[in-house]
Structures are given as C-alpha cells and as structure tokens.
Amino acid sequence: MKGKKDYNYFEAFVDLSKFSLKSAEILNKTLREFDIKKLEEKIREMHNIEHSADIAKHDMLNRLVKEFLPPIEREDITSLSQKIDDVTDAIEDVLMGIDIFNVQSIRPEILKFTEMIVDCCKSMDVALAEFQNFKKSKRLHSEVVEINRLEEEGDALYISGVRNLYKTTKDPIELMVWTEIFRRLEKCCDACEDVANDIENIVMKNS
Predict the structure, then answer these.
(1) DSSP letters of 190-203?
(2) Which CATH number describes the domain made up of 9-205?
(3) So which domain of life are we looking at (predicted)?
(4) Pseudo-torsion of CA 195, 46, 126, 193, nearest 10°?
(5) pLDDT of 138-162, one tens digit each?
(6) For the chain, what are the domain ranges?
(7) Which tens digits make up the pLDDT trace of 3-43?
(8) How many CA atoms lie within 13 A of 90 on its CB side?
(9) Hey, CA dihedral for 73, 15, 186, 157, is it positive or negative?
C-alpha cells in the first residue's frame, strides 16, 4: 500500500482500472469455456476482484478527505473513481445474471460482446495510464475516442443481438433471460464510456 506522502491519485485510478480489466478477462474466459460446474468458483473469483476494487476505492476516498491539496478537484477524483468502480460492478452483474437465470449454454453472439468489453477495458486502462500526463500525452485523446467507438459498437451488438434473439426464439423465458443479459452487457460498454467522458471533462477543466 502506498504511504501517505507518496500516494498518487493518478496511479490509483490505474490500479482501479486493472480490477475492471481483470473482471472483463474472467467474464470472457468463463463464457468462452462455459462449464456450469465451474460457474460458482468463477463467481467467487469475480466477487473477490470486485471487493478488492471497493477497498481500493474507499482507501482513495479516505485519503482524499485528509488531502490538503489534491492534484485535481476533489469532486473529480470522487466521480472518476466511482465511475471506474461502476465498470467492475457492471461486469460482475453479467456473470451474476448468467447464474441467477440458470443459463445452461452461451449464445455465440455473446462472445463477441465479451471480447469487445475486454478491448474497452484495455483502452480505458491505457487512457488512465496516460491521464497523469494529460497536458503532454499524445495518446490520451485517441484512447478516449476508441472507447467511444467501442461503446457505439456495443450498441450495434446489442441491437443486432436482441433482434436476432426475437427472430429465432419463441420461448418467453429464454427471451426474457437473454434480453436482460444483453442489457447488462451493453451497460458495461456504457460504464466504460462514462469513464472516458469523465476523463475528457477533467482534462478540459484543467487545460
């Protein structure tokens, strides 16, 4: 754990984003190699990551309360840390939905979504790594744009996935289950875009 004097909020943002990326990778691998017998174990693994992310976020906010002069405005640190945490929570919600709705097999189009969420979290991680040097970074803007592009791709996957679902499935329970899972997947992309928007707003305020 970082000592009080050398605590770096920008590095702490990156640490939080690592939890999101790890969650996305677990989700993608779990659904790609789906085994109902291993689902409970994967849910525990995911929850441990989410819990660790919460602890890291609370540590940051506890330090912020005592901080004399933070590097950016307090409300921006609070908002960005919460939005990064929201990404991790949204990813966990997808796996929880798979469990709650007793899903027995994974629709192929779902895997395109989970791969794209991994890509989105990777771009978010790079953007946050660049964020500390936002006045000089040549890469930050392109990563924010990439997150926005991936969110639009997520919207398209959501629309095509749900449309195909209603074209090929008549069972009302199956329709309900997969509509909700598609919604949760799209929420992951929206959460990543919220982080990108926060970064962009903070850069504008401090430029």
Answers:
(1) HHHHHHHHHHHHHH
(2) 1.20.58.220
(3) Bacteria
(4) -20
(5) 899 999 999 999 999 999 999 999 9
(6) 9-205
(7) 445 789 999 999 999 999 999 999 999 999 999 999 999 99
(8) 26
(9) positive
